[in-house]
Amino acid sequence: MSRAVDSPRVLNIADLRRLAKRRLPRAVFDYIDGGADAELTLRENCRVFDDVTFRPRNAVAIPRCDLRVSVLGSRLELPLLLGPVGSSRMFYPRGEEAAAHAAGAAGTAYVLSTLSGCRLEDVKAASSGPVWYQLYLVGGRDVGTAAIERARTAGFSALVVTIDTAVSGLRERDVRNGTKELLSGHPWTMLPFLPQFLARPRWLAGFLSDGGLMAFPNVVLPGEGPMAYADVAAALEQSTASWPDLRWIREVWKGPLVIKGVLTGDDARRALDEGAGAIVVSNHGGRQLDGVSATLRALPEVVTAANGQAEILLDGGIRRGSDIAKALCLGARAVLAGRAYAYGLGAGGEAGVARAIQILRADLVRILKLLGCASVAELDRSYLDVPSAWVADAPRRTSVGAG
Length: 403
Known about the structure:
Blueprint lengths: L12 H11 L2 H8 L6 H8 L5 E2 L14 E3 L2 E3 L3 E3 L12 H11 L4 E4 L6 H7 L4 E5 L5 H14 L3 E5 L9 H5 L2 H4 L4 H4 L4 H4 L2 H9 L5 E7 L3 E4 L4 H5 L5 H11 L3 E6 L2 H9 L4 E4 L13 H12 L4 E5 L5 H9 L4 E4 L1 H33 L12 E2 L2 H4 L12
Parallel strand pairs: 4-13, 5-6, 6-7, 7-10, 10-11, 11-12, 12-13
Antiparallel strand pairs: 1-14, 2-3, 8-9
């Protein structure tokens, strides 16, 4: 592992965030770090874990902790998947391949965003573990169908359909950093925003050696080829995934289907009706509708609505192993992390991603031992004190199972 991201310089995810901020241009760092509007939900995703406290069982000797879990039939070495983060190739050369390789080496799964800079076939080849494909319908139904077919042929094991992007959220940091102007191609329009890139020469050298501004190779437009890198807000608005789309997607895909972007029991039940094998409780990392529930707060309602008919995953705000443990206690089978590993990628490439996973794994082992719990399969709500307003929503025991 690179000494730049090793201990004691990097002890937690916040340290990786600090290093990423130092290495990346402001516009790139803020793309990872920022959220929508006033960033209320962005902050609340992290803060809400403070509302839940542990109830340890002391005087219990735990010589070894079992972190293994089965997710959609795949055996994972820990209940942490790397979630889809678009444009990861902007953070580090061949960023998606680097992250996928680190996930496989750690014995867990990687989820590739449609809006990635690396070919899905190359990303699958880079990982020794399960790889899922996250689908946006940018380019329309025919383009989406072609991408699904490619993912199936390449060996992706699940398809993730994101349902919370009717329009792109207003990410004010991106506007202030001149994202639109930088993508305009007009030198005089771009000029005021270029110094932030010149101030990061190591990043700039890597960016240029990796081909410069990427296209989206998994969005192949008929007669045009890969979709050019641009502000995707308009493309997303024109291609919102709706419930009726799930029917033709199921016909094309056939394999395990994951619905991402569920925050209510009603949407959870609708996802089950459409054949979801797993549901991700997600608010897009606070990057879409600001002011919605933090995902941990929404989790009990979704778990209750699913009633064991689908595996429940959670993303949003995962920064420590204690966050993972609390989510599992409240009924999640596993969690997805996005920013946590993206900070690592921005800080030091694959070594940074591996360090992020290592930190969260070590955290989780330590938490289990201090709780007096030998396995993630044994975590349930009896290990937590939960605010009274949450109690009616949360089942007393929901086993995550090791499979």
